[in-house]
Specification:
Blueprint: E1 14-15, E2 18-19, E3 28-30, H1 41-51, E4 55-57, H2 63-68, E5 75-80, H3 91-101, E6 110-118, H4 126-145, E7 153-159, E8 163-165, E9 173-174, H5 179-192, E10 196-199, H6 202-208, H7 215-218, E11 226-227, E12 234-235, H8 238-252, E13 260-265, H9 280-295, E14 310-312, H10 354-359
Parallel strand pairs: 3-4, 3-14, 4-5, 5-6, 6-7, 7-10, 10-13, 13-14
Antiparallel strand pairs: 1-2, 8-9, 11-12
Helix pairs in contact: 3-4, 4-5
Amino acid sequence: MAVRICRLLLLFWLFSGQVLQILCLTIGINYGQIANNLPPPTRVAGLLQSLNISRVKLYDADQNVLSAFLNTNIEFIIGIGNENVSTMTDSTKAQVWLQQHVQPYIPHTRITCITIGNEVFTSNDTVLKSNLLPAMQSVYQALVALGLDKQVNVTTAHSLDILGNSYPPSSGSFRQDLAEYIHPLLNFHSMTKSPFLVNAYPYFAYKANPNTVSLEYVLFQPNSGITDPNTNLNYDNMLYAQIDSVYTAIQGMGHTDIDVRISETGWPSKGDPDEVGATPDNAAMYNGNLLRRIAMNQGTPLKPSVPIDIYVFALFNEDLKPGSTSERNYGLFYPDGTPVYNIGLHGYLRPMSSSCKLMGRASCNCCVKD
């Protein structure tokens, strides 16, 4: 499921007095829409094409978005929300959902993955937890019935809070209270060859303990790192350590054939007074250095030959997201298409036509893509 922002141009980072040239960059982007000021999907399609971003993760199966991206060759992960997980346990309803939200768009919109729920195992809803795997199985079986299982896989995205232990990485393990859910889920991933998705945010660790967690370590800056006493592997950044902790936890349940991918990671450019580290400079440093690592095709210390697979959070700042100020300020771009900070990603958001302006952004669908 490799995607490319692969473009022959120069991306410049002025970090430590150095100018970095990157010729080929592989990354995905989360496209959230909890906002009232975002450009319509047709204009977003043009922006992503101008950036040569070709992997997008949605949190739903918005038909306006999927229609806007017809014939763009952009690859999509689409989502089924937690509120609909129980419905998907019914195979008939799962097949109807696929016939409405997936089948009409293939092959002109490249849907390659469906996430069932988001961070389900960190909720307090035991019914939701119990329904997750049956829902995933039901959707997978419906894909098989429709002949789509070879091009669309089924997974779910987890919070790192599913780990009971994450340090050192070689001691990574899942929470004991979740073992009854995770073990059969891993069997499903192994059987269907689908990835294990994790939302990983070193920012949270730094915000919680800014006096003990090194800012250089979480921002991919030069530092001595930590050495795992059990493996002697050295980690110079927290994200890679988190990924390897998940790999170790999966191995502890008997599986070595499941890929771990990062479905969300990012850094807020603004926060409340108690949200330490949420600044434009730190956000630029985190995402800029992360993109540079990805461009180098790096793997983690435990999996050096497996390039990390990451979806950055997020495309836009989303002004209606609830919670702290940081929640509304993870975007790489403002809604008008200008970068929140400079990491060398300069795209082009087509201006609205006069007819679009008359209809209003929410109704606009005439800024047609290439």
